[in-house]
Amino acid sequence: MPPDDGAPGTSSCENRFVADRMLGTLTRYLRFMGYDTTSANGLLNGNADEDSLLLALAHDEHRILLTRDHELARRGRDLAVLVKEGDVLEQVQQLVDLGPVERRLPLSRCSLCNTVLREAEEDEIRSAAYAPRDRGGYTFFWCERCRKLYWNGSHGKNLLQRIDAGL
Does residue 106 form part of some domain? Predict the structure, then answer.
């Protein structure tokens, strides 16, 4: 089992993922949904051994490999899921149907870098020009690595509605 990474809404028995380059949008959605998801986009582009690296990463880190590549999925056997759909909401639906993902939007991970978010401090909220003026009723989260502010405002609610509607 993967270790507990301390992210809210996650546990040591929760699925973790590694996605191929064709699944960048799905990677961001899974991160918004609180899933520890690494991406091939973080690897050196053009590496002829990328598929083998992804398979090794899935094996070594107890991750499920998500791929649009039939051959890579075949090679990955039990470690891989062939993502058949092109639309991201249909991709999420496929993962929900298969069981490794559930509907939720805890905002516990940075959608850009996968870092576990922490509650934002007041000066971090003030420093974000894009933060809402009326902060009442919101809980704000901060990515230390990207220095990005998150909160579950209308964008988050719209995203959750899209996920629910697509499912």
Answer: no
